[in-house]
Specification:
The complex is a heterodimer of chains A (240) and B (125). Chain A contains eight helices and seven strands; from the N terminus they run βαβαβαβαβαβααβα. Chain A is of the alpha/beta class and 240 residues long. The chains are: A alpha/beta (240), B mainly alpha (125). The A-B interface holds A 38, 40, 58-64, 66, 70, 73-74, 77-78, 81, 174, 176, 217, 220-221, 224-225, 227-228, 231-232 and B 21, 24-25, 27, 31-32, 34-35, 38-39, 97, 100-101, 103-105, 107-109, 112.
Chain lengths: 240, 125
């Protein structure tokens, strides 16, 4: 059952997702007809923008490829600008199921949370994924437990629902992909974060943004950003 | 390396670490550059932490003399120079990204406003 009386925006960052974007948007229309959607076309060169336009969907067109973080940041800013109560992040590669969207918003309300993370590793049917991904996931999951006192099983999930206040706080910090560093920052600022189990489908098309270089560089970057997030949140708390 | 040298190197390394974290926090250095410049700093700290390693490391390129104060000064000078250039590149790319984002947001907001205005005209008619 959709939560009534609140305005929800689903932000879908997309870079060269022509193969999957139509299916994702049609699925969202069907599964969450009451929620608004905006696609952030991150400088795609494969006709993604034309498909979104042909479907009559809202889109933010970035003139060049700025990367996942900047694309998401643009969509979240649009949500805040338009006064949405809840903003969701949803991947354009077809790995997230549109039918899980209402459940995420419900979890936000029933659990009194500020952010709900769609978790692939939490629940009855945990996602397996590659060895590197599982190892990284386990490391950051334990790191969050160390830093916030509670384990978050899926720190790398791109499927999230945030209340406007949490979204604003997340955008103010230095961030990379709004993963571990954002969770630590929000948690240290006193926002309540919960996980909601979701199944994840195999990538339906396009290319993953993760490569060998990201596997090597990602942990180092996230560690540095987590230190920055802790400093930021600690100083903000002291200033209050 | 004697204790005095280790302490000085630690102080230099710690200062560079604080500088890099502060620049990333202030959005003046992208995290990629931050990580890139942290690696040599951490490498330097590891080398001076292990007894005997500085001399071995100094002898790697078949140099006869051990690591000198001049070598440390050159390292710090070059790293500061590279950090400065990285900050300038970061600021430029951040401005460009903000411009692209504002353009995209402005386009969509303007389109929505004009659609709303058109709908309002239809209601009036």
């Amino acid at each position: 059952m959709p939560v009534s009386g609140i305005r929800v925006l689903i932000v879908i960052p997309a870079h060269n997702e022509a193969e999957t974007i139509a299916g994702v948007l049609l699925g969202l229309r069907q599964a969450a007809p009451d929620y608004d959607r905006v696609v952030v076309d991150d400088g795609s060169q494969d006709g993604t923008a034309a498909i979104v336009a042909a479907l009559g969907e809202k889109q933010l067109r970035l003139a060049c490829n700025l990367g996942y973080r900047r694309a998401l940041q643009t969509g979240l800013n649009y949500g805040l600008c338009r006064g949405y109560d809840v903003v969701m992040c949803f991947d354009a590669d077809g790995q997230h199921r549109p039918e899980d969207v209402p459940g995420m918003v419900d979890a936000l309300h029933t659990q009194g949370a500020d952010m709900v993370i769609g978790s692939r590793f939490y629940g009855a049917r945990p996602y397996t994924g590659s060895l590197a991904r599982r190892a990284g996931q386990a490391f950051f999951s334990h790191l969050t437990r160390l830093l916030i006192g509670r384990r978050i099983y899926d720190t790398l999930s791109g499927f999230k629902a945030l209340r406007a206040a949490a979204c604003r706080a997340m955008l103010q910090g230095a961030s990379m992909d709004f993963h571990t560093e954002a969770i630590v920052r929000l948690s240290w600022l006193g926002f309540h974060i919960v996980e909601h189990p979701i199944p994840v489908l195999e990538r339906a098309g396009g290319r993953s943004m993760h490569s060998f270089s990201t596997v090597v560089g990602y942990p180092a970057k996230t560690m540095l950003l987590t230190i920055v997030a802790m400093l930021d949140a600690g100083m903000s708390r002291r200033a209050r | 390396m004697n204790l005095q040298g280790v302490i000085i190197t630690y102080l230099v390394g710690l200062s560079l670490f604080i500088l890099i974290v502060a620049l990333v926090r202030a959005h003046k250095l992208t995290v990629s550059f931050g990580v890139l410049w942290l690696f040599p700093v951490l490498g330097l700290l590891v080398i001076v932490s292990v007894p005997g390693l500085p001399a071995r490391f100094g002898g790697l390129p078949a140099a006869a003399s051990p690591i000198s104060a001049l070598g440390l000064s050159a390292f710090v000078f070059m790293l500061l120079g590279l950090i400065y250039i990285s900050v300038q590149v970061t600021l430029l790319s951040a401005r460009q990204a903000e411009l692209v984002q504002k353009l995209a947001l402005g386009e969509l907001l303007a389109r929505e406003e004009s659609e709303n205005a058109a709908a309002f005209d239809l209601v009036l008619e």
